[in-house]
Write a structure and sequence with these properties.
Largest sheet: 5 strands, parallel
Low-confidence stretches: none
Structural class: alpha/beta
Strand content: 15-25%
Oligomer: single chain
C-alpha cells in the first residue's frame, strides 16, 4: 500500500460525523436518483447524501439534445431521446406517490421535456439541489478496503468537474448507482455490413424523422423503440421495413410499413433476410437495445457484465460481493419504471437502515441467476409485480399504491392491442377506483 492510499485509508476512519451519520454517494440525478436522494433526505439524522450528476441540471436520460456521438467534453452523449419522443406509459402512473403533479401537457403520453420538467419540479419541491453536484463526471468508484464485513467497507468516488477539469475524491460508506441502462448501444454483427453503402445508425443516435424523407429504411428490432421509430418514420419515408425474428406484430399498421424476417447478411445496396428474401434499403437503424456497461466501476467492485447485464446482483439491487453498493433502475425487460425505482430505492435504503438481513450467499447467487434475461424473458407481465411486491415484503416497507398496478396493467393490455394508435388515448382513474381509457382531446 503506497503512501497516498495509506493516507486515504486512515482518512476514511475519520469520516464518521459526530452524530454517526453514514455518507451515501449517489451517481445520477435522473428519476431513480432523485427519488433515492429524497428518501435519504428524509433521514438526515442517519445519512449524509451526495449526488454526482454529469449534466448541468436534473433530467437524466430524458434530456434531449440534437447532438450525437461525443459532447463538448469529449464524453459519449448520454441521452437516447429523439426529438418527437413521447412516453409509452401514461403520466398518471409515471409520477412518484409523494409528488403526483405532472404539469404541462394534459394528455397521458407526454413529450420528453414534460418528464424533465416534472423532475425539476420534484427537485425544487423537496429542496434536493443542495445535495447534488452538477457538471460532475464520475471517473472511478473504488473499494477502499477489502474487508469482508460490508459495515466497515468504504468507497472512493473519483470525479472530474467538467467546467474546470479539476479532479476530486470523495470517500463514502455506501454507493447507489442510479444511471439507468439505456445509453450503451448493443449492435449485433451482420455478415458483410462493411459492404453496405447506406447510412447505419443505432436508435441511440436517431433524432429526426425528416432526415429519412423519401427513403427506404430498414429498422432492425421490433421492441418498443423499434415500433415507435418505425411508426414515426412511416410519415416521411417511402417504405419502412420492420425486420425482426419474432411473430408478426398484429393490428393496424401504416400502409408503407412492411414486416420482414431478421437480417442474415448485407450487400452493397441492401440486405439478405433469414428466409432468403433480399431487400434494398437506403438506411439501417438498429433498434436492438442496450448493453449494461459502467466504465467507472473498478475491477475490485465485485460487479461484472454477465450475459450483457450486471452480475451478481441480489434482487437486481444489491452487489452480492460488496453489499454496501446498490443499484436503482435495473430489471431486464421491465416497462413500469416508477414502481421499479420506488421499490428498489426503498429496498436498498431499508437494508442500509438494518431493517432486514440478507440471506446466504448461495441463495443470493441463485436469485441473481434467476434474474438474468435468459431466465425471465418468457415471464408473464404479472411476474414483474410479484417482483415489486416481493421487495416490499422482504424489506417490510409499504408497497407502492395499488392504482399503479391497476393502471399500468390496464394500459399494457390496451397498448399491446393498439400498437399504432395507443398514444392517441388517455388513461383515467374514476372515483369508484375503476380505470378507463378514452380518446385524447389532443390526439
Amino acid at each position: 500500500m503506497n503512501v497516498t492510499w495509506m493516507f486515504l485509508w486512515l482518512l476514511s476512519f475519520l469520516l464518521f460525523t459526530a452524530d454517526g451519520k453514514k455518507r451515501v454517494c449517489l451517481i445520477g440525478a435522473g428519476l431513480s436518483g432523485l427519488f433515492s436522494v429524497k428518501l435519504l433526505a428524509d433521514r438526515l439524522d442517519e445519512f449524509e447524501p451526495i449526488v454526482f450528476e454529469r449534466n448541468s441540471d436534473v433530467g437524466g436520460l430524458w434530456i434531449y439534445t440534437d447532438d450525437t456521438g461525443l459532447d463538448k467534453y469529449g464524453l459519449p452523449i448520454h441521452s437516447s431521446v429523439y426529438k418527437n419522443l413521447r412516453t409509452n406509459s401514461p403520466k398518471e402512473v409515471m409520477s412518484f406517490p409523494d409528488y403526483q403533479h405532472f404539469e404541462g401537457e394534459k394528455r397521458s403520453c407526454v413529450k420528453h421535456h414534460t418528464v424533465v420538467d416534472y423532475q425539476k419540479n420534484y427537485t425544487d419541491h423537496f429542496n434536493l439541489r443542495q445535495f447534488i453536484k452538477f457538471n460532475t463526471y464520475v471517473e472511478k468508484v473504488i473499494p477502499l478496503s477489502e474487508i469482508d464485513n460490508w459495515r466497515v467497507n468504504r468507497w472512493i468516488i473519483k470525479t472530474r468537474d467538467l467546467h474546470s477539469n479539476s479532479t476530486d475524491a470523495t470517500i463514502c460508506d455506501f454507493v447507489m448507482v442510479c444511471t439507468g441502462q439505456y445509453y450503451k448501444p448493443m449492435i449485433p454483427t451482420i455478415l458483410g455490413i462493411k459492404k453496405y453503402k447506406g447510412r447505419v445508425l443505432h436508435s441511440h443516435s436517431y433524432r429526426k424523422p425528416e432526415e429519412f424523407s423519401g427513403q427506404t429504411v430498414t429498422v432492425l428490432g421490433a421492441a418498443v423503440s423499434g415500433q415507435d421509430i418505425t411508426f414515426e418514420l412511416s410519415l416521411y419515408a417511402k417504405i419502412v421495413y420492420l425486420s425482426h425474428r419474432h411473430d408478426k406484430l398484429q393490428g393496424e399498421m401504416p400502409r408503407n410499413v412492411i414486416q420482414v424476417p431478421g437480417i442474415a447478411a448485407a450487400d452493397t445496396n441492401g440486405f439478405i433476410l433469414t428466409n432468403g428474401m433480399r431487400i434494398e434499403s437506403d438506411s439501417l437503424i438498429f433498434c436492438t437495445g442496450y448493453v449494461n456497461e459502467l466504465p467507472f466501476l473498478n475491477i475490485n467492485s465485485g460487479i461484472e457484465v454477465h450475459d450483457k447485464y450486471l452480475y451478481p446482483l441480489y434482487k437486481q439491487v444489491i452487489n452480492i460481493n460488496n453489499p454496501s453498493m446498490g443499484f436503482v433502475g435495473l430489471v431486464p425487460t421491465f416497462r413500469a419504471s416508477t414502481p421499479k425505482f420506488y421499490s428498489q430505492a426503498k429496498y436498498f435504503i431499508s437494508f442500509l437502515q438494518g431493517q432486514f438481513k440478507l440471506p446466504s450467499r448461495e441463495k443470493m447467487i441463485m436469485d441473481a441467476e434467476n434474474m438474468l434475461p435468459k431466465s425471465i424473458k418468457n415471464k408473464k407481465y404479472e411476474w414483474h409485480w410479484d417482483y415489486i411486491m416481493g421487495l416490499a415484503k422482504e424489506a417490510n416497507f409499504e408497497p407502492i399504491p395499488e392504482f399503479y398496478q391497476k393502471g399500468l396493467t390496464f394500459w399494457q393490455k390496451f397498448q399491446d392491442e393498439n400498437l399504432y394508435h395507443f398514444k392517441e388515448y388517455d388513461l383515467r382513474f374514476l372515483v369508484d377506483g375503476s380505470v378507463e381509457i378514452v380518446k385524447s382531446k389532443m390526439a
